[in-house]
Amino acid sequence: MIKKIILPCLLLSALVTSAQQNLVQYVKPIIGTSKMGHTYPGATVPFGSVQLSPETDTLSYEVNGKYNGDVYKYCAGYKYEDKTITGFSHTHFSGTGHSDLGDFLIMPTQGKLQLNPGVASNPKGGYRSAYSHANEVAEAGYYKVKLDDDNITAELTSTTRVGMHQYTFPKSDQSHIILDLMAGIYNYEEKTVWTYVRVVNDTLITGYRQTNGWARTRTVYFAMSFSKPFKSYGRKSYDAKQAYRGFWGKFNQEQNFPEIAGKKLKMFFDFDTQEGEKIKIKFALSPVSQENALQNMRAEISGWDFEKVKAQAQATWNKELNKIQVTTSNDNKINFYTALYHAFINPTTYTDINGEYKGLDQGIHKADDFTNYTTFSLWDTYRALHPFFNITQPSRSNDMVKSMLAHYDQSSLHMLPIWSHYANDNWCMSGYHSVSVISDAIIKGTYNGDANKALDACIATAKHRDYEGIGYYIDKGYIPAEKSGISVSNNLEYSYDDWSIAQLAKKLNRMDVYDEFIKRSNNWKNNYDSATGFMRPKLADGTFKKQFDPKDTEGQGFIEGNSWNYSFFVPQDPTSLIEMMGGKKKFATRLDTLFTMHLPDEFFAHTEDITREGIIGGYVHGNEPAHHIAYLYNWTDQPWKTQAQIRHILNMQYKPTADGLGGNDDCGQMSAWYMFSSLGFYPVAPGSDVYSLGSPLVNNAVINLENGKTFTVEAIKQSDKNVYVEKVLLNGKEITDHKIKHADITNGGKLTFYMSAKPKK
User: Where is the Glycosyl hydrolase family 92 N-terminal domain (predicted)?
Assistant: First the structure.
């Protein structure tokens, strides 16, 4: 159950200026923490480096040398269904379908010291604790929970680079704070490469941790400060026996020893506490050094006023949330502003307060004219999240493109990011969708750097022949099924990406590049089987693979999808796809079939992140490749079906509950789809300046643009029954082609939908 947030009067006054509404009250970070949403409920600020949130179990990535499927439930560290908390760590991904991070887990305890986390069935057998959702509060920038086993109240808030903890203890001469440097998400036995801890004095600790996981050379530095001196401290090492340890054995390193190093370490700090005494912690992160972490801490949180830091975090969120002010029902407001919150979590800041960051070359760089960002889940976010930033966060979008180009400059492979985090590319998913983000930003006027240099980086990435079938794609016009298990989806996604490169080249009047890449963008046709009407794997000899089932998600040439969904993935050229599928009427009938068919469980049994809740007919909204499909009716003579399906998806796939997301939020892509569609328009093909119209869920929305102008959406007579659009006016002039342009928004103005219960045929 999600509780209402009652903000104190003083906090309200701190949050809300005369031009702002109090929108923090509608953000429910608990949405998506159950089932497949994979969000976390803890404290962060917009695009912050720190994501301070609870962990609810300690599952290993592998069991007996094999992948442990249950770990997938813990991509965000927290699972709403769990009954225990193991601690609070400082780094998390939001909504992903794979994971890493979970760095520097802290857990307050009292009584006999226990350094083992224990198990959920017996929480008192370790340092974990039982908890209840009745004693849990999750707000934008703030998290609170009572740890029942030790009667300790935990509170968390954050700034961009510093997490702040506040623990209220009972009276005890055995109060402890544990720093578990072995804990992590998607953890396994050898994940931690090395850990270093330096006890500077009785309130300050610094150090670093290097891990080898999804990112294979990830190093995070920290500085940890206590509000009260600890009376004693110690460590326990779980390192296996080494052949050689030098002569450190001369010291007793277990108790009160100030310099600790090893692969598997846990630290503890002991206190005497009075009843109700609060011990606070400031925990700063840096990608560069311990010194920078300490500098980040001192710059962002100078004192120990927890309530002040919390109010500052929530005021920052409120300012960002007020970029869009909507009028709609209370539940829809909760969905909308929680979606906006989730959209503004990632990408994350990867620059210290002094402008330094660690690059892909593992060297130290300084971002003089931009903020460097990481956490680019591009297979997901190029579709709607980055286009959403070009409207609501153009300055940050500009910096994100600069971050991608810095990644390219530092890459030994001379490639733009595929899926990058913490000075690494983990190469997850298919396509080279950074080219879409870059093209979209330049075409829409967001990027202020060297556009020709950006295009050169796009070209080099798209011509990297030894990356996932690109050489075959260039030579044959498709990727042979024998050479790749995801040959069809790669071909389709490369074709779209190449189209976006062509659009950028055309804008820059580099017509030789345009001609080359517009030709490549038609390669999708080589996987279309006219006999069946589906995209289908093709063998090296030019024939289609015989064993084929368009409903199946396994072994059919697609990544996280089936041919029924991927066969509509030609967002750059729906007109040609419609012609190949037999014309507008037949195409619309195929769309009808997709949304109404029954997809048996066996056809998504091998897909971790898709369950029945994320499917409408055979349309999989819980995964990204189909996100544009409902808008394709606009290219037929039946646009009212786009309107009906959009509203159906909005109401079915998004709810103001812990299990309210029908699939992984994927770093904000699911949320961006919700917001675009609630506002009545969507970027079917990023790289174009055109948005396709749908059916707005809001009654009214005001987008407060960075340039000082406003764009208003009004839906007259909008209701649960009135989902159809009778007519649309842009600044008083009727729109008849179901689309608007980016400049229509950024120039300011008003988009008015007249809604009806009957479709306009």
Answer: 26-286
